[in-house]
């Protein structure tokens, strides 16, 4: 079972490339480093960073030297971050890791990109009222799809083993920008409906799938209008397709199914662009949607909410080279529940990986982490990865090593 640690280019720059690789290889006992080569905005705490303990990330930028010719004629072009203007973080990592016989993977946040969304709002998702969500590029937009393919091909030329594809799907209303606010209760259904995209490309894709997309659009806008005027009834329990059908009619379910087709075909295109020598691993964020903040997810197994984002993991396991599940849960039994669901949907465990957090809120001791690793081994998973080198204390690396050897 392969293992890697996720990290930022700023981790390498601030601590020193060789220091980080020593920590990853010898202290954590991990075989590979997975570098964020395209990432979004954020403000994070870095406990062992010698330069900055709190950092605002340079979001919407890339951390490698792009082959500019690959983007000729495209509406969207990558924005090069400061570190990549001064050097080539990915290239330098590949060279140094190669000397140690360590593997290198690339971690790409594809469509959650406010920099490009603000520059090219026509490429962003659009809600039922025509408002653009400038933090999220639309998976159905042909300009966005062309950019995603070019970005994957550009990264693959570095010879990385895997591209971990984050944000290669639709996003909900809650996953967005900074200081987001709303105070009136729209209900779970209302929040979900407000996150749906009705741009011309999504409407066209739904129409091609046999859906009366304009009728769905009107229905969703009308339901949201009612919820803006008056408080909705209590909506206990997890969001279900049946509840959406009751609110907006069965056409909405067809519209949601068309989103699954959009995400699947985009994943196929990006996998093909990456080429035969680089695996494209689709990161299913369902586990993060449930457990990111608390490490205590509730309700059904993580992949059962994938349809919220247009994600069908059984289809994507075939469309891509693999799927990465996010095991963001403190309880190993909960991780086991999710893994069993992924296994049943995907079948072949060699096409499934697991991302774990060796730190709070998911983990505080090696025995807990070892129990989760044992679940991954027993399930026959291809790999287990750890998130995130810069976010944890260095003692978490010892925890990884102890758990791996338990």
Walkthrough of the structure:
The protein is α/β, with parallel strands linked by helices. The protein has 16 helices and 14 strands. It has an eight-stranded parallel β-barrel with strand order 1-2-7-10-11-12-13-14, surrounded by eight helices. Strands 3-4 form a two-stranded antiparallel sheet. A two-stranded antiparallel ribbon has the order 8-9. β12, α14 and β13 form a beta-alpha-beta unit. α14 runs parallel beside α15. The radius of gyration is 21 Å and the shape is globular. The two termini are 14 Å apart. The model has no long low-confidence stretch (mean pLDDT 96).
Features:
406 residues; alpha/beta; 8-stranded parallel β-barrel; 16 helices; 14 strands; globular
């Amino acid at each position: 079972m392969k293992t890697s640690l996720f990290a930022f280019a700023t981790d390498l720059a601030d601590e020193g490339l060789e220091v980080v690789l020593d920590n990853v290889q010898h202290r954590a006992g991990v075989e590979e480093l997975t570098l964020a080569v395209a990432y979004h905005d954020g403000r994070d705490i870095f406990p062992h960073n010698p330069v900055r303990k709190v950092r605002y990330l340079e979001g919407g930028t890339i951390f490698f030297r792009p082959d500019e010719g690959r983007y000729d004629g495209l509406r969207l072009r990558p924005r090069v971050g400061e570190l990549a203007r001064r050097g080539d973080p990915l290239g330098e990592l590949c060279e140094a890791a190669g000397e140690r016989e360590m593997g290198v993977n690339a971690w790409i946040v594809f469509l959650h990109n406010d920099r490009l969304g603000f520059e090219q709002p026509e490429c962003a998702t659009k809600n039922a009222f025509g408002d653009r969500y400038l933090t999220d590029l639309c998976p159905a937009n042909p300009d966005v799809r062309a950019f995603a393919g070019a970005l994957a091909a550009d990264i693959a030329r570095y010879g990385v083993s895997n591209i971990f594809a984050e944000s290669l799907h639709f996003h909900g209303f809650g996953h967005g920008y900074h200081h987001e606010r709303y105070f009136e209760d729209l209900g779970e259904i209302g929040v979900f409906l407000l996150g749906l995209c009705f741009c011309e490309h999504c409407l066209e894709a739904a129409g091609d799938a046999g859906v009366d997309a304009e009728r769905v659009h009107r229905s969703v806008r009308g339901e949201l209008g009612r919820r803006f005027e008056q408080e909705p009834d209590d909506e206990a329990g997890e969001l279900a397709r049946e509840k959406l059908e009751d609110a907006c009619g069965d056409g909405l379910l067809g519209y949601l199914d068309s989103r699954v087709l959009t995400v699947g075909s985009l994943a196929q295109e990006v996998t093909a662009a990456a080429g035969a020598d680089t695996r494209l691993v689709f990161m299913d964020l369902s586990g993060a949607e449930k457990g990111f903040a608390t490490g205590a997810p509730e309700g059904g197994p993580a992949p059962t909410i994938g349809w919220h984002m247009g994600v069908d993991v059984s289809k994507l396991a075939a469309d891509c080279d693999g799927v990465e599940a996010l095991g963001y849960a403190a309880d190993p039994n909960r991780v086991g529940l999710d893994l069993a669901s992924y296994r049943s949907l995907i079948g072949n465990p060699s096409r499934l990986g697991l991302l774990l957090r060796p730190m709070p809120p998911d983990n505080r001791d090696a025995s807990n982490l070892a129990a989760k690793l044992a679940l991954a081994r027993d399930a026959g998973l291809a790999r287990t990865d750890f998130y995130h080198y810069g976010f944890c204390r260095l003692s978490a690396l010892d925890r990884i090593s102890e758990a791996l050897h338990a």
